[in-house]
Design brief:
326 residues; single chain; alpha+beta; 2 domains; 6 helices; 8-stranded mixed sheet; 32% helix
């Protein structure tokens, strides 16, 4: 006998009686009854019966919300029928007299999920639908996020000074840049096309660290304390060739090919943290929901397949045609 630990089957009405044998008692002739049960919380198992007969005794159209079982008053023996056998009985494909023998033959191979009080298959299907909806929503929101490869990197000043320059990189530096000198430009440098306006930069700083010296365009000296900007090729930043040549003459080991431009940025750049929190998380949730939806769908299909196999097994025992199994 299988039942959920939190619920027990309570007989609602005796549907009808029939003569048969008891296979659990050496096929002793005995009178059986077809009973209709409802699963109720254990706390209310001794309460009054609340459901009334809904179909005449000669009919097998017992509503699916009820469980069908057999009961032998002489031996005080009752069995709840598994779902597949209940479906066959409701469809009129097995007789009342066959129920005890069929259940006896198959009982040892039955699982908890084969009985009506297991987790409802309809709930598994509902979970598949809900997870599918969540997946569509999450992946839909993720697809609306910025489709760009321009990532804003967070990096320590010392690490940036020792790393190779990266063209068109959007960078936020942590820590103050060590300036060797700061020079005013005759003409402030304006952002090139495609760069988010950050204002002209009138000062050129030479900073030292690592294996080389770097050029940095700034609006004011305080920009070196915590710089956010773009690392561009000097030609892309439109730094005059004369200025570059002058700096190369003054400083050895100067990387004059690249310049960091304070306050400039790409309009579509976003940080790793923003990407993870706003978009990557949505993508991961969406993929997770897809997997859960597929697992629930597969679980429901496997349950359906097992029920068909059980029904065919019961029909084979009574000489019925498996093709007619529900």
């Amino acid at each position: 006998m299988y039942f959920n630990a939190s619920t027990v089957p309570v007989c609602q009405w005796r549907h009808r009686e029939f003569d048969g044998v008891d296979p659990w008692a050496n096929n002793e002739p005995i009178k059986w009854a077809v009973n209709v049960y409802a699963y109720v919380p254990t706390l209310y198992a001794n309460g009054p019966v609340t459901e009334k007969r809904t179909v005449p005794p000669e009919s097998n159209d017992v509503p699916p919300k009820f469980a069908v079982g057999i009961y032998a008053p002489a031996h005080n023996r009752y069995r709840i029928l598994p779902n597949a056998l209940q479906d066959l009985w409701r469809a009129g494909m097995v007789r009342d007299q066959d129920l005890a023998r069929l259940l006896y033959e198959k009982e040892m191979g039955l699982r908890r999920s084969d009985y009506p009080n297991a987790w409802p298959p309809s709930l598994i299907a509902l979970c598949a639908i809900l997870f599918g909806i969540f997946a569509v929503i999450a992946l839909g929101l993720w697809s609306l996020g910025p489709r760009t490869s321009r990532m804003r990197r967070f990096i320590d000043t010392a690490e940036w000074l020792s790393a190779r320059p990266t063209n068109e990189a959007s960078i936020i530096l942590h820590g103050e840049l060590p300036a060797l000198a700061i020079y005013p430009l005759n003409t402030p440098i304006s952002p090139p096309a495609g760069v988010k306006p950050g204002g002209p930069l009138p000062l050129l700083a030479v900073v030292s660290g690592g294996r080389e010296k770097r050029l940095v365009l700034i609006a004011q000296r305080n920009d070196l304390a915590s710089l956010t900007g773009l690392e561009l090729q000097a030609s892309s930043a439109r730094l005059p060739v004369s200025v570059i040549s002058s700096m190369k003459e003054k400083y050895q080991e100067l990387n004059s090919d690249y310049v960091m431009c304070s306050g400039w940025d790409w309009p579509d750049a976003y940080s790793d943290v923003e990407k993870y929190q706003m978009y990557q998380a949505l993508k991961e949730v969406g993929i997770g929901c897809v997997i859960l939806a597929l697992l629930c769908y597969a679980g429901r299909k496997l349950w359906d397949l097992r029920q068909r196999r059980l029904a065919n097994g019961f029909l084979a025992l009574v000489g019925g045609s498996p093709s007619g199994a529900p």
